Amino acid sequence: MRNQVSKFFENNNFYILGIPTADLDNLFAETAAYLNILHPDYGKLAARISVTALHKKTHSKFSDVVDVLYNYKGQLGENASLIANDVYEIIMKNK
């Protein structure tokens, strides 16, 4: 049963009634958090659902994340890099 549930949540493109899985993840996590008053295990479930949702949103490669942070633009379109040039160069040379 556990494998079936994890396979269900692994598919990012799965929709139920047109609802994206990201929205379902949020709904399940919020519901489990509210149920935490009934049993503390619901809090653990809410945390695990939230972490899984965050993993779906992040890049799998560290160098991809650094590239996104380095090329970050501010609200007005100006360069607002969140990574120093020397750090970026070292990471890109060693990826």
Lay out the secondary structure.
Blueprint: H1 2-10, H2 21-34, H3 41-57, H4 62-70, H5 85-93
Explain this structure to me?
The protein is mainly alpha-helical. The protein is 61% helix and 0% strand. The chain has helices at 2-10, 21-34, 41-57, 62-70, 85-93. The N and C termini lie far apart (38 Å).
Kindly list the characteristics that best describe this protein.
elongated; 5 helices; 95 residues; 0% strand; mainly alpha
Q: Any low-confidence stretches, pLDDT <50, length ≥5?
A: none
Question: Distance between the terminal alpha carbons, to the nearest Å?
Answer: 38 Å
Radius of gyration: 18 Å
Largest sheet: none
Number of strands: 0
Contiguous helical run count: 5
What percentage of the residues does DSSP assign to strands (E)?
under 5%
Summarize the entry for a quick read.
This protein is mainly α. It is built from 5 helices and no strands.
